[in-house]
Amino acid sequence: MKPDVLIEKNVKEILAELPPGVELVAAAKTRTADEILKAIDAGVKIIGENYLQEALNVFNVIGKRVSWHFIGHLQKNKVKKAVEIFDMLETVDSYQLAEMINRRCAEISRVMPVLIEVNTGEEKQKSGVLPKDAIDLVKRISIFKNIKVLGLMTMGPKFGNPEDARPYFVKARKIFDEIKELNLPGVEMKYLSMGMTNSYKIAIEEGANIVRLGSKIFGERAN
Ligand SMILES: *Cc1c(COP(=O)(O)O)cnc(C)c1O
Fold first, then answer.
1. pLDDT digit string (tens) for 145-182?
2. To test the ligand 1 pocket, which listed residue (68, 191, 212) has its Cβ within 8 A of the most ligand atoms?
3. Cα(184) to centroid of ligand 1, in Å?
4. Which ligand 1 atom is the nearest neighbour of the CA of 198?
5. Which of 2, 29, 101, 137 is most deeply packed, by most CB within 10 A?
6. Which residues face 154 on adjacent strands?
C-alpha cells in the first residue's frame, strides 16, 4: 500500500476504535506537511509537535484548520513564538516557564490552555514536574490570568510490554483526581493526556482522554 493510503487507513481505524470522549493527537515530529495533511483529510483534528521550528515549517503550510498542541520540552526562549501558533501547551513543568508563558500571552491578549507535565517515572533524563510537586505547581500557576490549567500530561517510562506502564498512568490519574477535588479557582481539570502507540489502550483504561499517537498513524520513524 502507498504510504498516503496507509496514513488514511490508520487514522480511520484509530478513530473508529477510540471510545467516545477520547481525543486523538497526531504526534507529528519528523513528518512532512504532506503526511500531516493526509492524516487531517482522514479525520485528525489535533496535531502535536515537539519542536518549535519544525512546527512552524508545517504550520505555515497547514495553518489553523486544525488545533496545534505543543508536546515537546518548551525552552523559555521559544515561548514568544510558541504562544502565537499553539492552541494548547501540554508540557508546562515549572513555575518559571508558566510565568514566561503568562507574560507572552498577556502581550498578545490571549489565555493559553495548558496541561502540567508530570514525570511519573521520576526519570532523571525526562522533563515534567515530580509527582510530589505537581499539586503545589498547579496551585502556584493557577493565579496567572493568561494561563488556564486544563489538566495533566505524562509520558511515563517506555517499556517493551505496555502493561508495565500501567502503574504510571494510575499515578497520573490519582494526581489528576486529587487536583480536581481541590476545585482551585481558574483550574478546570478536564484533560488527562497519556498513552502513545504502544501504550494508549492501557492509558485509556486508566482514564486518559487525550492519546498522542505517532508511529501508529504515520509508520515507524526513521530516527
Ligand atoms: C513522539 C511522541 C509521541 C508518539 O509516540 P509514538 O510512539 O510514535 O506513538 C507521543 N508523545 C510525545 C510527547 C512524543 O514525543
1. 999 999 999 999 999 999 999 999 999 999 999 999 99
2. 212
3. 30
4. 7
5. 101
6. 118, 194
Chain segment 16-63, per-residue pLDDT in tens: 999 999 999 999 999 999 999 999 999 999 999 999 999 999 999 999
Q: What is the DSSP string of the chain?
A: --HHHHHHHHHHHHHHHSPTTPEEEEE-TT--HHHHHHHHHTT--EEEES-HHHHHHHHHHHGGGSEEEE-SPPPGGGHHHHHHH-SEEEEE--HHHHHHHHHHHHHTT--EEEEEEE-TT--TTS-SB-HHHHHHHHHHHTT-TTEEEEEEEE-----SSGGGGHHHHHHHHHHHHHHHHHT-TTEEEEEEEE--TTTHHHHHHTT-SEEEESHHHH-----
Which one, of 223, 211, 202, lies nearest residue 71 by Cα? Answer: 211
Residue nearest to atom 5 of ligand 1 (CA): 214
Using an 8 Å Cβ cutoff, are 150 and 88 in contact? yes
Evaluate: CB of 69 within 6 angstroms of ligand 1: no
User: Packing angle between helix 33-41 and helix 52-62, nearest 10 degrees?
Assistant: 60
Whether residue 212 has its Cβ less than 6 Å from ligand 1: yes
Which atom of ligand 1 approaches the CA of 91 most closely?
A: 13
Residue 151's pLDDT is: 98
Q: Phi-psi region for residue 206, left (φ > 0), alpha (ψ -120 to 50) or beta? A: alpha
